[in-house]
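Quick one - first record:
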Amino acid sequence: MPAEYTMARYCVGDPAARRPDHLALIVVHDAHADPADPAAVDQWTYREVDAAVRSIARGLTAPTTEGGLGLHRGDRVMLRMGNRARFPLTFFGAIAAGLVAVPTSAQLTEEEAAWILADSEAAAIALDPDLSVAVPEGIAILTPELIATWIAAGAHDERQRAPFADLHPDDPAFITYTSGTTGRPKGVVHAQRSAWGRRPMYDGWYGLTEDDVMLHAGALNWTYTLGVGLTDPWAVGATALVYDGPREPLVWPHLIAAHRATLFAAVPGVYRHLVRHGDPSTWDLTSLRHGLVAGEALPGSVRAAWEKATNRPLYEALGMSEISTFVSSGPTTPVRPGSPGRAQPGRRIAVLSQDDGTPVPIGEAGRLAVHRSDPGLMLGYWRRPEETADAMRDDWFVTADLVSLDDDGYLTYHGRCDDVMNAMGYRVSPVEVEECLAHHPEVAEVAVTAVPKGEGVAIITAWVVPAASAKVGDAFGQRLIDYAHRHLAAYKCPREVVVVESLPRTGNGKLRRADLR
């Protein structure tokens, strides 16, 4: 890795120099329209992406007297935007300028977005008009119109484009927010080197080449999509294919056929729905080499059903916001039922005892750890030094995942040693949901956990002790669910409410969530 390095140059500038006229980005607005219709599909070459990214970089940092925002190196730029092309262009534009991008989910409520805006101490926010948030005075707002003006100005005038900032590999590039055991999400700070650190995934999971077209079923503001669906294809000079039309659960085979996608990435639930409710006999998957799956454990029955219906392999990976995926199967790592795979080439992992942090014997469960030398590992948690220190122990970043390894290095996942839940591939803190529901006047006590509802399916459930004034009846649970939706992103909200007389606790009064399940 060069001494001066920027993630934006690696993912945008370098491929633009190698293959300027190759398609970098396809954004589909209407899956059923003619793929050549510019009203239905946006297409960007690497030459155009490079010009747009550096034009945005200039706009962010140029003095206000020259139509810019006058931001300084290291300032945070929060992105509260939909799945349009301006999201990745602004994300990489901020990084190209030496700023720190803070991508956020469009599913967040205004209240949640305002908290991240304050916690990140962002100097600016890129804001779509349909995603409202209260912006305090002094924070600059990037509207879609302003971004479009900057891009247009730099399209034919190189003077309106900033050079890529010269940065150190360990300088921060972006911050993503993820749920932990505490109530509020915590910011995960990733370095410029993080894109370089993803290189083991190219062969270890994807088999990714510059000729690929990568379709991801998630939104670009999700870290899984931002990495797998955008950063990695751009780093090798491939094409990223994004869909921002109506959420039709069966649209993905149509998009694969229409745009000749070679790789398709999604969470297990997408594959489950496709094989249960779709008609594989009508799908044209001749361009597709294989599917990729991550976000939560893949049930064996879903893999078997997909591969039988499509005759295409499905390769699983295990990862997390702090390092992305680092264990996987793939074209060079045979699938082993019941395992997401083994450490990708170049990765160093260990299984450590929960008691003293020493390595455990083969076959014994312990906490999964990643060596701190891995260039894809986060710098730390944003302004949470104690939590960073707790996760970084000696030479290892120690996760909360309980796993075991066999003699061949294949990993078996045994769950988590904390209470963090997994909902549709998103990590959700039960404490955050509990704190929300506890403010409802009809709730005396509440505990939240994920309850299994079949192979590979678990739903967030709230166990509620009603207040004395509560009107407990058929509508009681729905009132609490509706209340949660007003304050939390949809994927964090409980889908069931169970009324109980009391919550299980230890002799010291500590909640025993495991007993609720």
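second record:
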Amino acid sequence: MNEQDTHGASVARWWSQAPRLRAELHYRERVLRCMPERPKSVFALLRRAAEQHGAREAVVDAQGRHTYSSFLRDVENLARRFAADGIVAGDRVMMLAGNHYPFMLAFFALQRIGAVAVPAGIREQAPALAYMAVQCGAIAIIVDAALDERVPSAEPAPGLARRYICEELPALAAAAAELPPAAQPDAPEEAVAVILYTSGTTGKPKGAMLTHLGIVHSALHYAACMGLAHTDRSALVVPASHVTGLVGIVAALVHVGGCVLMLEQFKAADFIAFAARERMTHTVMVPAMYSLCLLQKEFGQADLSAWRIGGYGGAPMPPAAIEALAAALPRLTLMNAYGATETTSPAVMMPPGATLGHGDSVGVALPCADILVMDDVGMELPPGETGELWIGGPMVVPGYWDDAAATAREFSGGYWRSGDLGSIDAQGFVRIFDRKKDMLNRGGFKIYSVEVEHVLAAMPGVVEAAVVGRPCPVLGERVHAYVHAPDAELTQEAVQAWCAARLADYKVPESVIFSAQPLPRNANGKLLKRSLRERLEQNSE
């Protein structure tokens, strides 16, 4: 059997294990391939796990261990507190919290009463938090004590005056045990469960509306295609507030009754020790994290024999890292996954055993996913030809919160127009070649240049600015800024301080070049970023 036949057989075996599917009408106009045997809400994932695996560990963090029975009890009690405080189904509640048990507790308590969780990354600063809060009409925020000072005041964001401190939530839940139970049936499947803000080409974040239908289908996709079970223990080292952490680990592991191992920050040596101690079997990380692990002497010494699934995405995995991981951990199966916030995490995944033979691919479409390669006028292209990837399926969000213009611009006929240029070969393997959108990829964190450019342009003395990616062997790209400020004596440190007060830290330019001349533009006035990238490469040589 040749290599192509081998990989074809691998894909066929993978698909043969997929759940039964049927066509269903959702969101009034989308006919979607769905899994009929499914929980009907995000909270139903937890309720069923507690019924079937009550005595098993559900969450482990630095403060303790929690079984599914105790986790569900805490969630029910905190939901009583939220309901008594007047939070009802459909209310939006922001979350500014790290990877720890109170995040899990608050998230599922909100789902219990049908409220909408709005997690924000813990690196976000006050201006972005205020924008999100006002845009979605948030009525409260759940925040880590150490981050409370970052919450905007009542003037720009009046809804955030009501605050819950994460460290106080377990005690708050215990004290609420005597309150009346929260009366809330399962939320409708098409109701919004989570709003996740994703940077936009206009510089303003857009609130992607993740529904119960979408989150449940993504959890089922992860479980079925990665072969997850109640015996799995998954390390959450990417942010719980990111779609990968929230759906790919939290929702997926709760669905199967597995254990979520929560690590508040990623340091390679600490992660290796934690994974070995907790007998980690699964995780999803960005490739840079794997590369950093390989650089640690502890990696070759720790007992990681339980680790069987290594999911990754957000950036290509270097071939050398794939080979090194295969040599060090022969039982580890690496599985690339491709998706976005708008697809509620994965739409494409690499079948087990196919990574080495398809290093230039992100995998094949998941059972419920529908991937098209389209030209600029909306015509499907044949296998092997390059066009924009359009993605459909029950996990694709119905649109953006209170942003009809962005929804109309980025969704067509029930498909999300990804902005990524790629192709699909005759065997169904998807390849990504380039981005139509002007976006950087820093270690899996997506950064729209225009968002950083708007902040730079508002700095006194700056006439114009442009942001491009500086190639980096570990992170893929780092943020680099060109600044034209002819009448101001600015320094790189001053520019970074200005940005750090207004942007998440991974969006702050790590290097700045000041230009005495205007930045290069074409005859139509469009900034020539290709010229700037070439100039940066020449300066790096």
